[in-house]
Design brief:
The structure holds 2 protein chains of 2 kinds. Chain A is mainly β. Helices cover 0% and strands 42% of the residues of chain A. Chain A has no helices and 38 strands. In chain B, the strands form 3 sheets. A 6-stranded antiparallel beta barrel of chain B has the order 8-11-12-15-14-13.
Chain lengths: 440, 251
């Protein structure tokens, strides 16, 4: 046997050709062309002893483990099996050729010189993308999506959104790190509204600037494999906002509209190896994040220009009614402003308003004060009046009076708005027990 | 006080008993000033010439609120913060009591009551109180019949016209050449034995102002020729009002 050099074409001839082939000869040729090609073989000259079923001399062609025929005879002979102009084409890149001659070539005692054969083979590019050229009926097509043939081989490609896998054949959706940064948009399961592929591990991330809240609106149809008794055992659509689980969805009932209150939303879509559901589609929009409506603690708190809705970067100013102080814990505040933060919370909590306390009125030397107002305390608008220890002292009030009122500023003020309390001045020259002369 | 009567508590609530160079008197102004005579602080011809006012203030004793000396002492003294002597007063001139007026500032204001009350100062323009015959009262813890008194006494005396005082003084002048200045007035009797005496110095001559219903200080017991042997001489407070008010008004 001989191994035919791996070339793209060539000739094979019977032994001694073009002279008659010898008796008792067995020759074998193994033709091999590069992978991606098939072998096409034709006989350009063929002259072998004819016999019934090519019993004596013959050429046998095999390819792909199949016999492609046993040939003998001469062009036009009635016996034998002349190949004529038949083209032998392999499915693989190999072809096997065997030649056999018996002990004689006689016809009624006359030796007849049969010249043998001249075969020409050539490598023909195999169109691997042609379904007919599939290696076997039970195997998948060459490419899951697109097949591209070229001389000596082929390659596969995938539809947009899919990625060719390492087997160079299958396509898988690339959805593990989908990022959406526009203020609004659409996202959907692969192939939506056609059934989604199996074994998905999709992760859709919406990332908007701080202070925006993402709103998800599910469109119809919504269809994810589910089970009547068990919650989402097959495929799951999980939605998280800033790591906080919003929900895990499946079935045919749309979640509708979801306000996430977050500028960062992650949507995970996990599928198993089977199913025929049509998937989901979300139209997401965004709006400035809202803060809770500010509510005063008490009736003395005034929220200036109260708005119906407070959004990110909005603020409100709090003051107190006259006579009340803004307090945070035990600390008195001069003013208060709260700003709506990016996370939808106020940057500081609502203060309370506490009635102004002037403290105990200043004590008056050689005198005293008493409360006019009831109850007797030192809070805003309480009134005290000062008096002196008469008749030894007389009260001096300056321009105001002896009545002092607790002011909104936390000080006791007289009717002229003065802080200074009255004074008790000695009364001169008025003895309680003056001398009296009786005798005249 | 000679020829006087015992005062009852509350009759002269301004009366102060002082102890600086022996017994003296004074009167309460406001609630922390004592009006007195300068010579109770720097007596004429005193041996302690180099002593300072601060030291004297430290040593001075002032008592208020009673008519009995022992009781006054029991009630405790009122410490003096500072002493102010009129600049015209000259302790070296033994025959001139001009400027015999001083103020003691107490360290702590006193609490006024029935037995402790201040005396009023006269109106700047009112000279009626110094007219001849205008009666006034002088109280004091001074000598009575050669004995130092243990109780507050008082005597009523008429103010004497300036000419009369001068005339009486002139009749005595051959023996005692004392100056009778415009800043003094005299009061008392020539024959009746009613007068102030040693230990009454610094106490005040008061008059009752019927218009205001108040007792007003018009004089300070200053000097005399003997006791109850003629008129007594008093510092004329009216002439020192500016000086007094200038000091007292500071606070």
């Amino acid at each position: 046997s001989s191994r035919v050099p791996r070339k793209l074409f060539g000739e094979i001839t019977s032994p001694g050709y073009p002279k008659p082939y010898p008796n008792n000869n067995n020759s074998i040729w193994n033709i091999q062309v590069p992978k991606g090609y098939v072998v096409k073989l034709t006989f350009r000259y063929f002259d072998l002893e004819p016999s019934q079923s090519c019993f004596y001399d013959y050429v046998k062609v095999k390819a792909d483990k199949k016999n492609l025929g046993r040939y003998c005879g001469q062009l036009g002979s009635t016996t034998g099996n002349h190949p004529g102009r038949k083209e032998f084409v392999s499915k693989g890149n190999r072809m096997h050729l065997a030649f056999h001659s018996d002990f004689s070539n006689e016809d009624n005692g006359t030796v007849i010189p049969y010249r043998g054969f001249l075969a020409y083979y050539q490598a023909v590019d195999l169109d691997e993308c042609d379904p007919k050229n599939a290696p076997g009926d039970d195997e998948a097509p060459q490419c899951q999506h697109f097949c591209h043939n070229y001389a000596g081989g082929y390659f596969c490609s995938c539809r947009t959104g899919y990625q060719l896998q390492s087997d160079h054949h299958s396509c898988k959706v690339e959805c593990s790190s989908e990022l959406f940064t526009e203020a609004s948009g659409y996202l959907s399961s692969p192939e939506y509204p056609r059934p989604y592929p199996e074994d998905l591990r999709c992760n859709y991330s919406i990332r908007l600037q701080k202070g925006l809240s993402i709103i998800l609106k599910f469109l119809e149809p919504f269809e994810i494999d589910d089970h009547q008794q068990v919650h989402c055992p097959y495929d799951q659509l999980k939605i998280q906002a800033r790591g906080r689980e919003i929900g895990e969805f499946c079935g045919k009932k749309s979640p509708g509209r979801i306000e996430t209150n977050s500028n960062e939303v992650d949507i995970l879509f996990l599928t198993d190896e089977s199913g025929f559901s049509r998937g989901w589609k979300i139209h997401y929009t965004s709006q400035k994040i809202r803060c809770p409506q500010p509510v005063p603690w008490d009736q003395f708190t005034i929220i200036r220009d109260l708005q119906p809705v407070y959004q990110f970067q909005d603020y409100f100013v709090v003051s107190c009614k006259t006579g009340y102080n803004l307090m945070e814990g035990n600390q008195k505040l001069l003013s208060f402003t709260a700003v709506c933060q990016a996370d939808g919370t106020w940057h500081q909590s609502m203060p309370r308003c506490e009635i102004v306390n002037c403290g105990s009125p200043s004590s008056l030397t050689n005198g005293a004060f008493s409360y006019v107002s009831k109850p007797a305390n030192n809070t805003y608008q309480s009134v005290v009046t000062y008096r002196c220890n008469e008749p030894y002292y007389q009260i001096v009030t300056g321009t105001g009076s002896e009545r002092f009122t607790c002011s909104a500023e936390g000080t006791w003020l007289d009717e002229d708005g003065q802080v200074r309390i009255p004074a008790c001045l000695p009364v001169c020259g008025k003895p309680v027990n003056p001398i009296t002369e009786v005798q005249r | 006080i000679l020829g006087g009567k015992a005062a009852r508590r509350g009759n002269f609530p301004w009366q102060a008993l002082t102890g600086i160079h022996g017994r003296g008197g004074g009167a309460l102004l406001g609630d922390r000033w004592i009006l007195t005579a300068a010579h109770t602080i720097f007596p004429k011809g005193s041996g302690r010439k180099n002593v300072s006012l601060d030291q004297l203030a430290e040593e001075a004793n002032v008592f208020l609120g009673h008519t009995n000396v022992e009781e006054l002492h029991k009630m405790g003294n009122h410490p003096v913060r500072r002493i102010l002597i009129h600049p015209d007063y000259n302790p070296k001139d033994e025959h001139n009591f001009d400027g015999d007026i001083a103020l003691l500032e107490l360290k702590h204001p006193v609490t006024l009551g029935p037995t402790v009350l201040p005396i009023c100062l006269p109106d700047t323009t009112n000279t009626t109180f110094y007219m001849d015959g205008h009666m006034g009262y002088v109280s004091g813890f001074g000598v009575e019949k050669n004995f130092i008194s243990n109780d507050l006494k008082y005597v009523s005396l008429p103010a004497i016209a300036r000419e009369k005082c001068q005339r009486w003084l002139d009749s005595k002048k051959r023996n005692i050449p004392v100056v009778f200045s415009e800043n003094m007035f005299c009061a008392g009797f020539l024959t009746v034995k009613r007068d102030t005496c040693q230990g009454d110095s610094g106490s005040i001559f008061t008059v009752f102002d019927r218009e205001s219903g108040r007792w007003v200080a018009t004089g300070i017991v200053s000097w005399g020729i003997g006791c109850a042997e003629g008129y007594g001489f008093y510092t004329k407070i009216l002439n020192y009002l500016d000086w007094i008010k200038g000091i007292v008004r500071e606070d």
